[in-house]
Amino acid sequence: MILVGIVEDDNQIRSLLQQYLDRQPGFSCTLVYNSVESFRKALTPETQPDVLLMDIGLPGMSGIDGMKLIKQDYPDTDIIMLTVYNDADKIFQSLCSGATGYLLKNTPLEEIKEGIELLTRGGSPMSPQIARKVIDFFSTEKKAVTSPLSEKEKEIVVGLVDGLSYKLIGDRMNISLETVRFHIKNIYRKLHVHSKAEVISKSLKGEI
Amino acid sequence: MILVGIVEDDNQIRSLLQQYLDRQPGFSCTLVYNSVESFRKALTPETQPDVLLMDIGLPGMSGIDGMKLIKQDYPDTDIIMLTVYNDADKIFQSLCSGATGYLLKNTPLEEIKEGIELLTRGGSPMSPQIARKVIDFFSTEKKAVTSPLSEKEKEIVVGLVDGLSYKLIGDRMNISLETVRFHIKNIYRKLHVHSKAEVISKSLKGEI
DNA sequence: GGTTCAACCCCATAAACAGGGGGGGTGTCA
DNA sequence: TGACACCCCCCCTGTTTATGGGGTTGAACC
To answer: pLDDT tens digits for A44-59?
Structure first.
């Protein structure tokens, strides 16, 4: 039996969802509230749901902030965001705060049910356009910047990022300390920076 | 009509897939090869498929390396990885290199077909366990690290990350150079590091 | 009232760094 | 052939850093 909770302020959507889900075999949907505050007040280790459908736009505390608190107290409850928001900001905030799924409100009831089942089987339900945004995050993350640095220079940058001293970089690459310095001078010139710190920063931000 | 290509070295899987997909209404599956090399040789702007199913473990060039090349020449072709590998490494390498979907080889033919359709509608097909791994990436990324640093110390870390010298950090925080050094000593001790570079690195990697 | 602790300051020294000179050598490309 | 880009090494300068020591204050805890 999958225990499902709902936090949703729209009365119509909320009762529709509850009635539908509670009728499904293997489902029980009774923890249904219209705000994070009231949900948390009612929550106990005994009533803790397996899956929680969470709206984002709520009166009082937002669903994202609410989720953080709920996850702290009940980390075993998996949370699916169920919202109209499809902007990258809301999506990534949710995922970084611990959401395990993200469905848009136009998702048919049946697919929501399937999403919940998918979740309990170790999957992560996402609306198609959400999935695409998540995937796109990776390919744009490491964009193929045409680095002006030569191979040796890039290797030295890696050493800097690893927190090595010039001497240790030289040892690692089997070149002399002086050569390391020579390369670093060139790196600074090419990147228009004047310190190790800036190089590390640029490198980790993917600007190299 | 969706033009589908396949790069897969297992003869049985390859012909099974081709026969199934080519029979589906709205699908055409003719560009079928057993290696990246032979696929790329045959590829022309005219024959360019809409969707490419790509194996990873291939004789010769790997599917991931192959994808990078294909994406360079034909960025409009969406690529779905179709593979047995479900380790985080392969998944993220693929996504970072431009894959738009990732299905495991145990996916039923029908779901592969649905995945291709989903892709053309702007979605991103992923096997459930892949989706979960991708989602988990975010929640573990910015894990709530209980930073051992005090507020002042964190502020100094910010200064270091910004590439400021001790002196400038002192100016910014209205404390003396000596106090900055005092704090930095403590930061190093707490983080078990011995240089600015390591602090910046840790900070930017979210380990503080 | 004593203890603890973070935050503030000072001193001293060795090492590392930033930036400026020099030398070499290889290769490519016009 | 000369102009470039890359790679390797050395010297010199002054500055910044890392790391050890020594303190005072004031709020907070028991």
So the answer is: 988 899 999 999 999 9
Sign of the torsion formed by the C-alpha atoms of A86, B136, A126 and B27: positive
Which of B131, B141, B161 is opposite residue A126, by nearest beta carbon? B131
Confidence of residue A72 (pLDDT cuts 50, 70, 90): confident
Specify the pLDDT at position A139.
Answer: 78
Which nucleotide's C1' is closest to A195 (Cα)?
C18
> Considering the domain B2-141 in this protein, what is its CATH number?
3.40.50.2300
Looking at residue B182, its pLDDT comes to 92
Q: Is there contact between B188 and strand D, defined as CB under 7 Å from any strand atom?
A: yes
Indicate whether A204 pLDDT > 60. Answer: yes
Topology (CATH) of A151-204: Arc Repressor Mutant, subunit A (1.10.10)
Amino acid whose CA is nearest the C1' of C5: B150
Per the document, the length of chain B is 208
Our measurement of the distance from residue B203's CA atom to the centroid of its chain's CA atoms, rounded to an integer in Å, reads 22
What is the β-pairing status of strands B51-54 and B101-104? unpaired
CA of B39 to C1' of C12 (A): 69
Token code pair at residue A4? 């499902």
Under-70 pLDDT residues of chain B: 140-148, 208
Domain boundaries, chain B: 2-141, 151-204
Nucleotide closest to A193 measured between CA and C1': C18
Helix (H, G, I), strand (E, B) or coil at A60: coil
